[in-house]
Design brief:
Distance between the termini: 16 Å
Number of strands: 29
Strand content: 35-45%
CATH class of the largest domain: Mainly Beta
Largest sheet: 11 strands, antiparallel
Radius of gyration: 37 Å
CATH architecture of the largest domain: Sandwich
CATH superfamily of the largest domain: Flagellar hook protein FlgE
């Protein structure tokens, strides 16, 4: 007479109820994964290994298996909320110095500028190298500098193909040649004018005015001033011989079809700083491209007038694009790539050890994490910013499982009660 089977059934069913209860409790936990209690029958070992006719001695909880199926994606509108649609885990650096893995993308900025989760674990990403225009090196915590972003002087931008000033204009072929010498305060001495803002090495703005004067059929001179002074300085009429500054940038020549033929390459100019005395060079060999300019018998138009400098700016936010690139945005309208998320994966997800707080730790059973890769590459899932992955718990199914587990618990208790009645009958004989 034994109670082993019923007792083991009560223990197993009790643990199953714990698993179901934990699933139900985490039905609203972002990034949580449902678990399933898996059982195995038990038999007593015999000396010679024979099992014929053996009666089992009950049931045992074999394992609690995690189910890493995809949860629903819920939009939040918060750019620091991240969701993975597919395989992969975020890497976070714990305060203890080890790396943990999570599917919960609820991140925020701490007071030091690190991107962290709710308990202070720091989200890791691969640093961005502007020189090669991609992420390189080992993943490390993402940190934003909350101070002013450094300014860039006009003509020193990172892209050589877009360096300096780029101008695309149409000069009216029907314009007449002015009869008076060029004088920037005399509109009759030139045909057209336009202006733009340049930036010095400290991010201070300067106004660059351009003046276009027709000299002959298909020929034009381009002049420029900085803050009202000729770009090459005010000159020195008292010098011997006198130094006369004209502000002439270059001459443009067009063919009979209105296409630009000269200059064939971008002219460069040395721009004098009109704010200091004696004058000093503000921009050295500043290229000015007139590519795309034309001379047609239509009005003067400025199709393009760009330059590559910008002022300093205050950090205003952070965004993640679909490829996991972390971009800082500044009040001057600029964006800067900081790093790129590297998702990791495991050969055996069931072997990951839950740590609580939506974290997992790699184990010998799970294998080492993969070398990592950007979202949407290889087997890694797509990244969605402004969204979170909901728990994959099927609440309806868990409630049904709860009813079943309750009935099984009652049935196992009934076997113990029946055994007790049989034993009582034997005692009464």
């Amino acid at each position: 007479m034994g109670f082993q089977q019923g007792l083991s059934g009560l223990n197993a069913t009790s643990k199953n109820l714990d698993v179901i209860g934990n699933n139900i409790a985490n039905a609203n936990t972002f990034g949580a994964k449902t678990s399933r209690a898996e059982f195995a029958d038990m038999y007593a070992n015999s000396i010679n290994g024979a099992v014929g006719g053996n009666i089992g001695i009950g049931v045992n909880l074999d394992t609690v298996a995690q189910q890493f199926t995809q949860g629903n994606i819920s939009a939040t509108g918060n750019p620091l909320d991240l969701a993975i649609n597919g395989r992969g885990f975020f890497q976070v650096l714990r305060p203890s110095g080890d790396t943990a893995y999570t599917r919960n993308g609820q991140f925020k900025l701490d007071r030091e500028g690190f991107v962290v989760d709710n308990i202070g674990n720091k989200l890791k990403a691969q640093p961005w190298d502007d020189a090669v225009d991609r992420a390189v090196g080992d993943a490390q915590p993402i940190r934003l500098q909350s101070g002013l972003g450094a300014p860039v002087a006009t003509g020193t931008g990172s892209d050589p193909a877009l360096r300096g000033v780029r101008m695309g204009i149409n000069l009216n072929a029907s314009s007449t040649v002015p009869t008076t010498p060029i004088a920037f305060d005399q509109p009759a001495s030139y045909n057209y004018a336009t202006s733009q803002t340049l930036y010095d090495s400290q991010g201070a703005p300067l106004t660059m005015n351009y003046y276009f004067r027709k000299t002959a059929v298909n020929d034009w001179d381009v002049y420029a001033t900085v803050n009202g002074q000729p770009f090459d300085g005010p000159g020195d009429p008292s010098a011997i011989p006198p130094v006369v500054t004209t502000g002439l940038v270059t001459s443009l020549t067009f063919d009979s079809t209105g296409a630009l033929t000269s200059p064939a390459t971008s002219p460069t100019i040395d721009v004098v700083d009109p704010r200091v005395t004696p004058a000093s060079t503000l921009f050295s060999a500043l290229p000015i491209s007139f590519s795309g300019s034309s001379q047609y018998a239509s009005g003067f138009t400025v199709n393009e007038l760009k330059q590559d400098g910008y002022a300093s700016g205050q950090l205003t936010g952070i965004t993640f694009d679909d490829s996991g690139v972390v971009k800082a945005t500044y009040s001057n309208g600029r964006t800067q790539n900081l790093s790129q998320l590297q998702l990791v994966d495991f050969s055996n997800l069931q072997g990951l050890q839950p740590m609580g707080a939506n974290l997992w730790r790699a184990t010998f059973s799970s294998g080492d994490p993969s070398s990592g890769g950007p979202p949407g590459t290889g087997t890694y899932g797509a990244l969605q910013s402004g969204a979170l992955e909901e728990s994959n718990v099927d609440l309806t199914g868990e409630l049904v499982n709860l009813i079943t587990a309750q009935r099984l618990y009652q049935a196992n208790a009934k076997t113990i009660s029946t055994q007790d009645q049989v034993l009582q009958t034997l005692v009464n004989i």
